[in-house]
Amino acid sequence: CHDDLDQDPKIDPDSFTENDVFANADEARGALAKLYASLALTGQEGPAGQPDISGIDEGTSQYSRMLFSLNELTTDNAVVGWGDPGLPNLHAMNWGASNDFTTAMYYRLAQEVSFCNSFIANASSLDDPAIESFIAEARFLRAFAYYNLIDLYGNVPLVTLISTELPSQNSREEIFSFIESELTEIQNSLMESGANDYGRVDRVAAWALLSKLYLNAEVWIGQDRYTEAITYAKQVINSSYTINTTDANGNGSAYDELFLADNNSNGAQNEFIFALNFDGNQSRTYGGTTFLVHAAIGGDMDAANFGVNGGWSGLRTTKALVNKFDYAVTASNEDGDPTEWADQRAMFFTEGQNLEINTIANTFTDGYAVTKFKNIDSEGNAGSDAGGDFVDTDLPLIRMAEIYLTYAEAVTRGGSGGNIQEAVGYINELRERAFGNADGNISSSDLTTDFVLDERARELYWEGQRRTDLIRYNDFTTGSYLWPFKGGSKSGTSVSDYRTLFPLPSNIILINPNLTQNTGY
Amino acid sequence: GTVTEAATGMPVPGANVIVKGTSNGTITDFDGLYTIENLVVGDTIAYSFLGFATKEIPFTGQETINVQLEEDQATLDEVVVVGYGTIRKKDATGAVNQISTEDFNQGQVNTAGQLITGKIAGVTVTSDGGAPGEGQNINIRGIGSISLNSSPLYVVDGIPLDNSIVGGSRNPLDFINPNDIESMTVLKDASSTAIYGSRAANGVILITTKKGKGQEFKFNYSGNTTVSRPTKYVDVMNADQFRTLVNEVGNDAAIARLGNANTNWQKEIYSEAIGFDHNLSTTGNIGGFMPTRASIGYTDQDGILSGDNFSRTTGSINLRPSFMDGHLKVELNARGMYTENTFANRDAIGTSVGYDPTQAIYDANSPFGNYNSWLVYSEEADRYVLNNLAPVNPIALINEKDDSAEVRRFIGNAKVDYKLHFFPDITATVNIGLDKTNSNGRTFVSKDMPSAQLDWNGSYNSYSNISTNKLFDAYLTYDKDFGDHSLTAVVGYSYQSFERNKDSYNSLRVQDGVNPVVIDNEKSVLLSYFGRANYNYADRFLITATLRADASSKLNPNDRWGYFPSTAVAWNIHNEEFFKSNTIDQLKLRVGYGEIANVNGLKDYLYLTRYNASQQNAYYQFGPSYYQTYRPEAINKDLRWEVGKTFNAGIDYSFFDSRISGSVNAYLKKTEDLISYVTVDPFTNFSNKIDKNIGDMENKGIEFEVNVVPVRTDDFKWSIGYNIAYNDNEITNLPDQVEVGGINGGTGNNIQLHKEGYSPFSYWVYKQVYDEAGRPIEGAYVDRNGDNQINDDDKYLYKDPFADITMGLNTNLSFKNWDLAIVSRASLGNYAYNNMASAKSYEIRATENSILTNLHRDYYNTGFQSLTETNLQSDYYIQDASFFKLDNITLGYTFDQIFKESTLRLYGTAQNVLIVTDYDGLDPEINGGIDNNFYPRPRMYTIGVNLNF
Question: How close does chain A come to B146, measured CA to CA in Å?
Answer without folding.
Answer: 15
